[in-house]
Structure formats: structure tokens, C-alpha cells
């Protein structure tokens, strides 16, 4: 995502995909694969998301982008780990961006084998990988290359796998860990470690509530996307309040934001796991670390 009016990079990438021998299959997913009237459909900010099966990640990563994508001004590329044991290659142009999820063809063959013989029902790591795959594709996808070979697997994964989900026990674990992190944040604020507290507020407290809100909306059959994508457009004001964080690098503001996150956690858990509660001793311990006036 670079600007609100990017050049459409998709036709150029389709041309490259057609002639790149290292690419066995390519699927367009994300907002650009959705119908124009669908929730979270593509707009002027949407980048190009491609799920690529390849026999050589290194060859794809060595692509001379200014040569194969002519016209747009190439800026940079970065290759990094992604979910499910894949790699993500971000190719950035001044006029737009493409994110290529790169999957080795061997990984896809293993996934196909697991689905064929039901191994994913007995092997947690296989189920996790396939559920991640299903989550990515469940919002809509379109083959650009390799549908004859891999189309049946994509269709079966989307139809049969639940996608990334968390059960009640895992939700309780998330919530209990949240309380420990909340206490840690409040203690660090008392010591004056504002940046450390701010980091955990966002990386642990906020992230937990985002995951729980996503799970709640899935259980209610409401439109939702991981990583809080389009959340402002999709959720109610009450739901938005559970994942909203607003605080400057100030002890009182950070403490208030952390406690609001705690309230958001309780709101979400009342809906997800009604039997879960914050124990009286834990409430007393958290109350002991109320922010004190700065002298």
C-alpha cells in the first residue's frame, strides 16, 4: 500500500508469472480477489496479494523487477518469514506494492498428501498449516496460473478447514496471560519504564484483544479479517472500544490505556467464555498498582 491512487500492477505481474518457470502456480487473494460490492473489497489503497507455489524461492527473490515490471518506478524488495512456514516477498514501487507469499512446491505436495490421507486430523502441525492456508484464502481467491494442478487442493482446504480459530481453553490461556502482562505493564509504569510498558501494551494486551475479537466475530458468523484489517469499517462501536488504544508516552495515559484494555478483555471474554472471571486476589493486585501523581 503506497498511495490512494496506485498504478494497477496486476497486469504486469500476470505477464511476469506467465513466463517465469520458477512459478508453478499463482493465486490472487485478498481484497483484489473480492467482488466490488463485497465487504472489504479493493479500493485505491489495496496492494496486490499473490500466493505463489514455486520450485525456487531464491530464483523468485532474485527477479530483476525493473526489467520485468516496466513503467512503475521500482523502490525496493524485502524477503521475510511469514505464517505457516512460508516466506513473504514484498516488492515496492513508487506507485504501488505487491506481496508475494512464497510456498515451496514440496510443502504443497505434503499438504496435498496430508489432506488426501486425513493426516491433518491426527497431526497438529499439519492442521495448523492448513488452517492458516484456509484463513488466507477464505476471503476469496482467483487462479492466475496452475489451477489444473493445484485448484482442487485450494478448493478442498477452503471447504473443509475451519481456518485459524481458538477454542475456549486457549481463550482462557490468552486471558490469563493478559492479566500477567497487564500487571507487568502497571509495575513498569510505576518504575518509570514508559517505553517498555508501551511496548507490551501494544504487543501483548492489544494483540490479545484483537485475536479474541476476531474469534468472537467468527463464532457469530460476522465478517472479520485477521490482524484487525478493516476493523473500523466492520465492527460496532462497542467492539471497536475493546481494541482501541490511545495514549501518549505519559505514565497516567499509558496506565489508563492498559486498564481500558483490561476492560476490553473482560467484555470479550464474557461473550466468548462466560465462565472465565478475574479472581478477587488478581483484582486486588492490579488495584494496588494504580498510577500515582507525578511530583
The mean pLDDT is: 92
Using the coordinates above, name the CATH class of the largest domain. Alpha Beta
| Overall structural domain count | 2
> What fraction, in percent, of the residue positions are helical?
40-55%
Label the structural class: alpha+beta
> N-to-C SSE series?
HEEHHEEEHHEHHHHHHH
Strand order of the largest sheet: 3-4-5-2-1-6
Strand content: 5-15%
Instruction: Summarize the main sheet.
Output: 6 strands, mixed
Catalogue the unreliable spans: 1-6
- In CATH, the architecture of the largest domain is 2-Layer Sandwich
**Rg over alpha carbons:** 22 Å
Question: Judging from the principal axes of the Cα atoms, what is the shape?
Answer: globular
Question: Could you characterize what this model shows?
Answer:
This protein has 295 residues and is α+β, with helices and mostly antiparallel strands. The protein folds into two domains: 10-160, Beta Polymerase, domain 2 (2-Layer Sandwich), CATH 3.30.460; 168-287, Four Helix Bundle (Hemerythrin (Met), subunit A), CATH 1.20.120. The chain is built from twelve helices and six strands. Strands 3-4-5-2-1-6 form a six-stranded mixed β-sheet. Helix 7 (168-191) packs antiparallel against helix 8 (194-219), helix 7 packs antiparallel against helix 11 (251-272) and helix 8 packs parallel to helix 11. The protein is globular and about 65 Å long.
How do the helices and strands line up, and which of them pair or pack?
Blueprint: H1 10-19, E1 23-29, E2 48-54, H2 57-61, H3 65-68, E3 74-81, E4 87-93, E5 96-104, H4 105-117, H5 124-137, E6 141-145, H6 147-160, H7 168-191, H8 194-219, H9 231-234, H10 237-242, H11 251-272, H12 280-287
Parallel strand pairs: 2-5
Antiparallel strand pairs: 1-2, 1-6, 3-4, 4-5
Helix pairs in contact: 5-6, 7-8, 7-11, 8-11
Amino acid at each position: 500500500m503506497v498511495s490512494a491512487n496506485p498504478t494497477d500492477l496486476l497486469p504486469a505481474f500476470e505477464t511476469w508469472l506467465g513466463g517465469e518457470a520458477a512459478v508453478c502456480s499463482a493465486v490472487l487473494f485478498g481484497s483484489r480477489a473480492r467482488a466490488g460490492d463485497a465487504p472489504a473489497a479493493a479500493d485505491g489503497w489495496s496492494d496486490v496479494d499473490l500466493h505463489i507455489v514455486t520450485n525456487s524461492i531464491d530464483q523468485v527473490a532474485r527477479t530483476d523487477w525493473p526489467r520485468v515490471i516496466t513503467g512503475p518506478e521500482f523502490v525496493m524488495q524485502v524477503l521475510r518469514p511469514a505464517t505457516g512456514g512460508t516466506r513473504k516477498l514484498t516488492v515496492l514501487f513508487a506507485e504501488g506494492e505487491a506481496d508475494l507469499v512464497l510456498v515451496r512446491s514440496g510443502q504443497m505436495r505434503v499438504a496435498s498428501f496430508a489432506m488426501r490421507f486425513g493426516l491433518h486430523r491426527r497431526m497438529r502441525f499439519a492442521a495448523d498449516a492448513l488452517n492458516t492456508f484456509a484463513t488466507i484464502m477464505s476471503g476469496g481467491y482467483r487462479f492466475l496460473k496452475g489451477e489444473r494442478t493445484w485448484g482442487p487442493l485450494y478448493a478442498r482446504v477452503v471447504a473443509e478447514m475451519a481456518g485459524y480459530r481458538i477454542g475456549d481453553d486457549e481463550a482462557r490461556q490468552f486471558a490469563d496471560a493478559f492479566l500477567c502482562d497487564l500487571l507487568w505493564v502497571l509495575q513498569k509504569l510505576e518504575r518509570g519504564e514508559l517505553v517498555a510498558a508501551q511496548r507490551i501494551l501494544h504487543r501483548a494486551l492489544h494483540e490479545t484483544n484483537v485475536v479474541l475479537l476476531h474469534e468472537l466475530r467468527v463464532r457469530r458468523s460476522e465478517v472479520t479479517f485477521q490482524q484487525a484489517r478493516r476493523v473500523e469499517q466492520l465492527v460496532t462501536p462497542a467492539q471497536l472500544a475493546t481494541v482501541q488504544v490511545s495514549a501518549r508516552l505519559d505514565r497516567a495515559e499509558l496506565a489508563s490505556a492498559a486498564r481500558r484494555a483490561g476492560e476490553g478483555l473482560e467484555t470479550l471474554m464474557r461473550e466468548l467464555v462466560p465462565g472465565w472471571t478475574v479472581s478477587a486476589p488478581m483484582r486486588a493486585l492490579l488495584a494496588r498498582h494504580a498510577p500515582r501523581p507525578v511530583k
